[in-house]
């Protein structure tokens, strides 16, 4: 009899253990997203239940009400989570990251999109859904972390722009009466931003206002002028170089050109276009 009871216990334990293993397997098979969706959904359910007046215990009714909400919540989550993906080239392009691009030299193919664009996270970007090439982004993160360590919060306000986006940008500026817009906004197909390696930066001291002359002279701008080249970034349109660059002074606009190149450019006090015109 005793043996029989022991035997039943053993079987029960085996069944429980197997169920746990199977359940864990199922959970790990779920995607990260569906788990987070569920967590959000359940957090919302908790809130719905909590918000019900004078209810200290979760009654069956509350759970039923909450469960009715699940499909609605899930639908809302789905709608809100239209996941942003950086543009991907539809054909193969030659890598143009070292192209000497300027007022007179544009991309040979205006549809150009770099092949390795990555989204910049909110830690480093003041705007959502903007992208940079992998190597530029890696170095940008290291640079902005170093700035933060020195006490300056700097973020990206603009990065990769498609040909179409640039077209729209210039049109808006001109429509708003800025007839000299070409001096600060590149013609479509002529923008360093389309290379996926250029960024506009701003600082906390001016509330991350983008492409803003107020950035000039801020501690963040000074920090960048001193240190950006250590991380491979060079100011594309420096002060007093408009005759060479063709653009007004833009203390916010930096281009990733590689650490070795940046070091040489800084040493020689050249502009990027002078350096690339060999
Ligand atoms: Zn720019």
3D structure, described in words:
Helix content is 45%, strand content 9%. It has 278 residues and is of the alpha+beta class. It folds into two domains: 79 residues, no CATH class; 160 residues, Muramoyl-pentapeptide Carboxypeptidase, domain 2 (2-Layer Sandwich), CATH 3.30.1380. Strands 3-4-6-5 form a four-stranded antiparallel beta sheet. The protein has a two-stranded antiparallel ribbon with strand order 1-2. Helix 2 packs across helix 3. The site of zinc ion has 5 residues, from strand 4.
Layout of secondary structure:
Layout: H1 2-29, H2 32-51, H3 60-80, E1 117-119, E2 131-133, H4 134-149, E3 154-158, H5 163-175, E4 198-203, H6 219-227, E5 233-235, H7 242-245, E6 253-256, H8 259-268, H9 272-276
Antiparallel strand pairs: 1-2, 3-4, 4-6, 5-6
Bound molecules: zinc ion.
- The level of helicity is 40-55%
Class per helix and strand makeup? alpha+beta
> In what order do the strands lie side by side in the largest sheet?
3-4-6-5
Strand content: 5-15%
Q: How far is the first residue's CA from the last residue's CA?
A: 95 Å
Please compute the radius of gyration using only Cα atoms.
Answer: 27 Å
**Per CATH, which architecture of the largest domain?**
2-Layer Sandwich
How many domains would you count in the coordinates?
Answer: 2
Runs in which pLDDT lies below 50 for 5 or more consecutive residues are: 25-36, 45-59
State the major sheet.
Answer: 4 strands, antiparallel
């Amino acid at each position: 009899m005793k043996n029989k009871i022991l035997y039943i216990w053993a079987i029960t334990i085996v069944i429980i253990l197997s169920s746990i293993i199977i359940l864990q397997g199922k959970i790990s098979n779920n995607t990260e997203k569906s788990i987070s969706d569920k967590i959000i959904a359940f957090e919302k359910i908790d809130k719905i239940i909590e918000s019900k007046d004078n209810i200290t215990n979760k009654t069956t009714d509350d759970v039923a009400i909450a469960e009715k909400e699940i499909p609605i919540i899930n639908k809302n989550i789905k709608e809100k989570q239209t996941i942003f993906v950086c543009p991907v080239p539809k054909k193969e392009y030659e890598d143009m990251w070292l192209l000497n691009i300027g007022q007179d030299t544009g991309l040979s193919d205006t549809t150009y999109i770099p092949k390795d664009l990555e989204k910049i996270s909110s830690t480093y970007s003041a705007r959502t859904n903007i992208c940079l090439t992998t190597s530029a982004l890696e170095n940008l993160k290291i640079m902005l972390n170093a700035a933060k360590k020195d006490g300056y919060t700097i973020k990206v306000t603009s990065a990769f722009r498609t040909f179409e986006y640039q077209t729209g940008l210039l049109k808006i500026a001109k429509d708003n009466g800025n007839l000299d817009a070409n001096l600060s906004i590149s013609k479509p197909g002529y923008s360093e931003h389309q290379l996926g390696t250029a960024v506009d930066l701003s600082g906390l001291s001016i509330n991350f206002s983008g492409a803003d002359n107020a950035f000039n002279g801020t501690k963040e701008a000074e920090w960048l002028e001193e240190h950006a080249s250590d991380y491979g970034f060079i100011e594309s349109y420096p002060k007093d170089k408009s005759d060479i660059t063709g653009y007004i002074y833009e203390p916010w606009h930096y281009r990733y050109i590689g650490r070795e190149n940046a070091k040489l450019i800084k040493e020689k006090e050249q502009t990027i276009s002078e350096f690339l015109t060999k």
